[in-house]
Design goal:
This protein is α/β, with parallel strands linked by helices. It is built from 13 helices and 13 strands. It has a 6-stranded mixed β-sheet with strand order 3-2-1-4-7-13. A 5-stranded mixed β-sheet has the order 10-9-8-11-12, with helices on both faces. It has a two-stranded antiparallel sheet with strand order 5-6. The chain starts with a strand and ends with a strand.
Length: 379
């Protein structure tokens, strides 16, 4: 690849709201410029099915296979919208990077054997039918980005810190990048080129669940509902006591941990006002993220926020409150709108795969070394 090429990145995250896609022009040096952005929402029944597949259930292999087909169709819809808005054709696109929908993430668990000195690998599962997606789009598909890192002894997540370094890093100061999707992940980029990254706790998953349950709305728009409530101190203390938050990186998680059952088990027995719980969940999310910045990147003076959480004004305000001396700002002010960052990352990762370049960071995932990520499904 000696000249810039076009790539498409497709991401459906743990928020389960739908598919974000970007069409980007990427240079051989990895510099990226987004040309178009599109989104396709999941309808309520499909979102409910994906939520259900996060837990064991009847006929789940059959249901997962069908959901993977449906994810491919949603992704293809976004691809066609991107091509239409950009004026490009399928043959103009070098490849598309398709993350898939994570329904289980259990790295480094279950299948070890101490007697044989065999470490557990565990598994991570992203629903997607890449072959169907290649058929529907007539574009080479790169998918299955996480499993090679697991095979090398890593967490398989997060995968975006290397991209964050390329887009947001600078040589003058330490920068922290916080992606708030369903789960929050943090990247710490230092001037010497070193990068750390890990999942720091819940993002929108618990807030969205509570909001939908008690208001019918899919999310708390701009945090307006949580702003009407009061933080419940003893509930906040209970939430912040979660052992995962105390663990040191590398670490990753998902709805396997931070799910409605986890929250229900921690609610006190006395009657609560729903808006007060929402305020507490917002405070919990902000505190968990801010505390990780303070603990692992005390020198950072800028916290760049992306993902859907960056559009929640109340959450951003609470992040700022818990981050004294740190400028908390949207990624849009650094050149990439919040809802485009992760999709752009998978366009970038697809370009790395086609060039057979490593894109995982052992300092982030804990793997034995950097690896070329992804499997290619030719059109």
């Amino acid at each position: 690849m000696s000249s810039p090429q076009y790539f498409i990145g497709l991401m459906s995250g743990t928020s389960l709201d739908g598919v974000d896609g970007v069409l980007a022009r990427i240079t051989p040096q990895g510099q990226l410029a987004v040309q178009a952005h599109a989104f396709a929402a999941f309808d309520a029944p499909f979102k409910a099915e994906l939520m259900a597949l996060n837990q064991s259930g009847a006929d789940e292999l059959h249901r997962s296979a069908l959901a993977g087909n449906q994810i491919a169709r949603h992704y293809a819809q976004v691809v066609h919208a991107l091509l239409a808005s950009s004026g490009l054709q399928a043959q103009d696109i070098a490849a598309l990077g398709a993350h898939g929908q994570t329904v289980r993430h259990r790295p480094l668990e279950f299948d070890g054997n101490a007697a044989l000195e065999r470490a557990p690998v565990g598994y991570t599962l992203q629903l997607i039918n890449p072959s169907l997606l290649a058929e529907l789009t007539d574009i080479d598909v790169v998918a299955d980005f996480r499993n090679r890192d697991l095979a090398a002894g890593g967490q398989g997540a997060p995968l975006v810190p290397a991209f964050h370094q390329g887009v947001f890093g600078n040589t003058a100061s330490c920068v922290a990048v916080l992606n708030i999707g369903g789960i929050s992940n943090l990247s710490v980029i230092r001037p010497d080129g070193s990068v750390l990254g890990w999942d720091c706790g819940p993002g929108n998953a618990l807030m969205d669940h509570w909001c939908t349950t008690h208001t019918g709305a899919p999310y708390d728009d701009n945090g307006a509902w949580s702003a009407t409530g009061r933080v419940i101190p003893d509930l906040l203390t209970t939430l912040m006591a979660e052992a995962f938050l105390q663990r040191s990186p590398p670490k990753s998680t998902g709805r396997d941990l931070f799910n409605p059952s986890w929250l229900q088990a921690r609610l006190p027995s006395y009657t609560l006002q729903p808006q007060d719980v929402q305020a507490t969940l917002t405070e919990f999310t902000a505190m968990a993220c801010a505390h990780d910045v303070q603990r692992h990147a005390p020198e950072a003076r800028e916290l760049i926020v992306c993902g859907g959480g960056a559009l929640n004004g109340q959450l951003m305000q609470r992040l700022g409150h818990h981050s004294p001396g740190v400028q908390v700002l949207s990624s849009e002010l650094r050149g990439l709108p919040p809802l485009q960052v992760e999709a752009a990352a998978f366009a970038w990762l697809a370009a790395k795969t086609l060039r057979r370049e490593t894109s995982s960071l052992p300092s982030v995932t804990g793997a034995q070394g950097a690896r070329v990520l992804g499997a290619i499904y030719p059109r």
